[in-house]
Amino acid sequence: MLQVLSVKKWAQAIPQYNVGHQHKLQQLQAAIQSAGHQQGIILAGNYLNGVAFGQCIENGVELGRSLGKRWPQAGALE
Questions:
Q1: Weakest-pLDDT range from 11-25, 34-48, 56-70
Q2: Contacts of 68 (CB under 8 A, 6+ apart)
Q3: Is the pTM of the predicted complex or chain greater than 0.85?
Q4: How far is CA 70 from CA 1, 32, 34, in A?
Q5: Each residue of 21-38: pLDDT tens digit?
Q6: Distance (Å, rounded) from C-alpha 12 to C-alpha 28?
Q7: How far apart are CA 47 and CA 23, in angstroms?
C-alpha cells in the first residue's frame, strides 16, 4: 500500500515573471522589427512563453516548425 512519508510545498517551484515582463518583451520585439532585423534575430527560451518544462518543449517544437517554414532547406519538423 502506498504511504505518504512527507510533503514539501515549494512556494516558487516554477519561476514567476516579474511585473512588467510582458511589456518588456513587447518592447524588445518592436525594437527588433523597427531595426529591420525580424528575419535574422530569433528569440527563444523559457523567458518568452512559459517556464514549465512542458511549455519549453512545446515552444521548441513550434519554433522548429516556424523555422522550417522560413528556411525550408533546413528541413521542417513533421
A1: 34-48
A2: 74, 75, 76, 77
A3: no
A4: 54, 17, 20
A5: 999 999 998 988 888 766
A6: 26
A7: 13
